[in-house]
Amino acid sequence: MNKIKYILSIAFIIPFLSCGGGGDDEPITPDPPVIVNPSAAVLVFPDNDEECNSGISMNTTQSKVNFNWDEAANASSYTVVVENLLTNVEFLTNSTVNQVDIIIQKSTPYKWWVISKATGTIETATSTVWKFYNSGDAIQTYAPFPAEISSPVMGATVNGTTVNLEWVGSDVDNDIKEYDVYLDNVDPPTTMIETVTLQNVSKEVSTNTYYWKVLTRDDEGNTSNSQVFQFRVE
Fold first, then answer.
1. Cα–Cα dist 181/185, whole Å
2. What's the domain count of the chain?
């Protein structure tokens, strides 16, 4: 009888051992951290469409300007992009705070914007684009900003026999007088088709590839050239 009781006891205990009774719990895998994309920065200075005359003069041709913007939510760093509007050359400066000093040319128009970045993600956010004129020494009048071509966009295909050329002009002095519009089948265009005071002009065209630009002139005789844009008529 004792032998039978012993066998029954073993049979009763084995199922508990096979189920891991008394063993360690399975490890809990933590949830991955939530990565939030950065927001776009709000630009503060240099002001849009204004003259910048608060830079520190470095020499006869350059000054150091403090670019600053409001902190962007979730951003851990920023890239400031500054473009010389006379040469269309861009240069980038990185910063972990919401300001940075950049040395730029005097008596030169620029545009700038800020790219917000966040640790752990490749997603970025880009601010609006502002233009300004970096003042020179004892300058009383400023050349207008190069006109910004709006239509047709670069590389566009146009149908029909008439094209409407459109652009946007601006000037720190607010004294734009007129625009010379150049349209040609060669790059750069050398044929001036019209001088206008509005920011658009219509022109008859035929099947071909066209190049065009706008020269802006102010009341003081200062001028600036836009970039050359290209479109095709089919």
1. 14
2. 2
